[in-house]
């Protein structure tokens, strides 16, 4: 377990522990895990707790199920409280890992050294998913939208769906005069950070605000907690629009095709994977910290640049050797072909490209016990 920091509030640690304790039982996955335990040769046991990204939620459910069959005596717990909450919980020593749709920032890297030792914490890509711009317009399944128009929609500058900026990109589509209701995340969200980064880089004049996990204040619209919260709000509000991980979008909502170069690209896992292949490592990080900078202005055919790379954030070292074994075994499962296939089936995610998966495995293998 990472060393707790006295400066962190006990309330944060207690809240994370309370949320995770609800998952605890000998076989939280039921009979399948119980039967696997009776027949398993795995000697791995213990409790491994994480918190963070709600976008990772469906994938994490699949990973918990798959890992539970392989290692049925391990209790793997995850609380989808949002990326910011997950990073805070890890840096408070409340959990052994965090799920985050944004990599650690410079000030968090410094904090991580106090909890995880001199090597700090490692951002390891685990989940790649496109972010949908999803709307509730009955009878309309998709719309072509460039980044500037999306920015104007979420800034409240486009008031109705038949606005000329939308109509000009969608000839032949009968657009209603329904009012636009933009719905953003209320919590500190990695999905918000990725969305605002896309808008800022692809349409800087229309979206001057820098990337942030917190939605800019003063903008019109509604907000809700988590991916499920914004989707629920849009589902019950005709004319509403939001941004959310594609795993939580169903056929009841329409989605935007993004202008990339000279073509409009529909949302897809393949498009997300193409975009991530263009990403570069963030400079000046630890050798095994795989934070990625995505090119939001790519013109590569088929790329869908509104994508999030969600990370598993682990300490580079833990005090307890048993925790090291648990963390490494789980991390290796997540980035394995089996783990990535489970995520793809459950959450419509894109598999991690081969070279990136190799780097991730090497990073996980580097995790060690504190001296």
UniProtKB/TrEMBL annotation:
Recorded superkingdom: Bacteria
Keywords: Phosphate transport, Signal, Transport
Domain (PBP) ranges: 40-338
PROSITE patterns referenced in this protein's UniProt entry, alphabetically: PROKAR_LIPOPROTEIN
N-terminal signal peptide: 1-24
Record-linked SUPFAM superfamilies: Periplasmic binding protein-like II
Region (Disordered): 169-189, 203-229
Alphabetical list of Gene3D superfamilies matching this protein: Periplasmic binding protein-like II (3.40.190.10)
Pfam families assigned to the protein according to its UniProt record, in alphabetical order: PBP_like_2
InterPro entries documented for this protein: ABC_phos-bd_PstS (IPR005673), PBP_domain (IPR024370), Phosphate-bind_PstS (IPR050962)
Presence of keyword Transport: yes
NCBIfam families: 3a0107s03 (TIGR00975)
Family indicated by similarity: Belongs to the PstS family.
Name of the molecule in the record: Phosphate-binding protein
Source organism of this protein record: Arthrobacter citreus
